Amino acid sequence: MNRTSRYLKFGAVSIGVSLVVAAACTSHDKAAVRVPDPMPNMPAMHSVQPVQTANAEAAGGAPLPGMPPVLDPDDLYAADRPGDLSDAVKGDPYRIYVPNNGSDTVSVIDPTTYKVIDTVPVPHSPEHVVPSWDLRTLWVNSDQGNAVTPIDPATGRFADPVPVNDPYNLYFTPDGRYAVVMAEAAHQIVFRDPHTMQTIKTIDVTCDGVNHADFSADGRYMIASCEFSGDLLKIDVANQKIIAQQRLPGLNPMPQDVKVSPDGKTWYIADMQSSGVWILDGDAFGKPTYLATGDGAHGLYISRDSSSMYVTNRGEGSISVLDFATGKLTAKWKIPGGGSPDMGGLSPDGKVLWLSGRYNSEVYAIDTGDGHLIARIPVGTQPHGLCVWPQPGRYSLGHTGILR
């Protein structure tokens, strides 16, 4: 299944017009982004083949060397409390960066006015805006444009694109040593230098549509979803190899976002085709159980107090709320008049959930207190993995903002 059929299968794409709004400053002027020196003595690139096993041992043992220590062993997200911004980001202006996949632009929203203040052209097919491990760069992933575009979040300025093959999604290992590019069309997971994006090691995958992932509590392994073949991969982070692979149950599973629970014991995988989430013991990597949430389950976001998870149901225009303590759904918020909530993130104080409306050329601001729609903001065509910035946390694991 190609990317065009990805859009056509799950709803008509609304043809929108990018809003080009004059800003007080020309944030799209090319400028140098603050990029640290690359790490020395990196190994040469080579490829490995995945191990086809239904179950495998966890990479396990002591935490990944170089990973910041977990603040609370019972809560991986303890550093993400409301307003708990690191010194590195306290001076960054509060903005929402929206990659418009069909318009080849990034819309910049001022969340205090709910207005688009800038629209910036980027290479073809921007998918996600991803915070770097050190929180000092936001990377725009343009998979079909074969480039990542750095943004300096302190100034909002976009620098020149960096050539990278097929960057559908982007993650960073918990020790900050590698960027991990999910090269969906190329059927590869590519470990790169996190600053220069130079290739270090390439893993070829046998599944189709590898794109979303998360990391274990000890940082030793990551679990990635393969959207088009319905597979999950378990990857040894330290040794950069696939140690297990399984296909999700069902006729045509279509796994999307992946998220580990605050206690690090349970993994959740949104399944757009099965209209719910799969619940998995990541260490054992055995057969998952299923929880229905809504049509087109897609994105997963942890509340700032680590008590709940928000599940975006793109096909029906709703957000389900899962309570971690009980494992049950406590609410379903429907967008008035319908919509297509996709990817996004929480405001620094956790009071607003920001989501792209994939098929409606708009962005939603949703109150996390009662789920009411605060605002819907017109943007470009097919808005996708928007990034809220800044966010609480010490370092980023990538995607639209997995901070710990």
Automatic annotation (TrEMBL):
<dbReference type="Pfam" id="PF21783">
    <property type="entry name" value="YNCE"/>
</dbReference>
<dbReference type="InterPro" id="IPR011045">
    <property type="entry name" value="N2O_reductase_N"/>
</dbReference>
<dbReference type="InterPro" id="IPR015943">
    <property type="entry name" value="WD40/YVTN_repeat-like_dom_sf"/>
</dbReference>
<protein>
    <recommendedName>
        <fullName>YNCE-like beta-propeller domain-containing protein</fullName>
    </recommendedName>
</protein>
<dbReference type="InterPro" id="IPR048433">
    <property type="entry name" value="YNCE-like_beta-prop"/>
</dbReference>
<keyword id="KW-0732">Signal</keyword>
<dbReference type="InterPro" id="IPR051200">
    <property type="entry name" value="Host-pathogen_enzymatic-act"/>
</dbReference>
<feature type="domain" description="YNCE-like beta-propeller">
    <location>
        <begin position="96"/>
        <end position="387"/>
    </location>
</feature>
<dbReference type="InterPro" id="IPR011964">
    <property type="entry name" value="YVTN_b-propeller_repeat"/>
</dbReference>
<feature type="signal peptide">
    <location>
        <begin position="1"/>
        <end position="23"/>
    </location>
</feature>
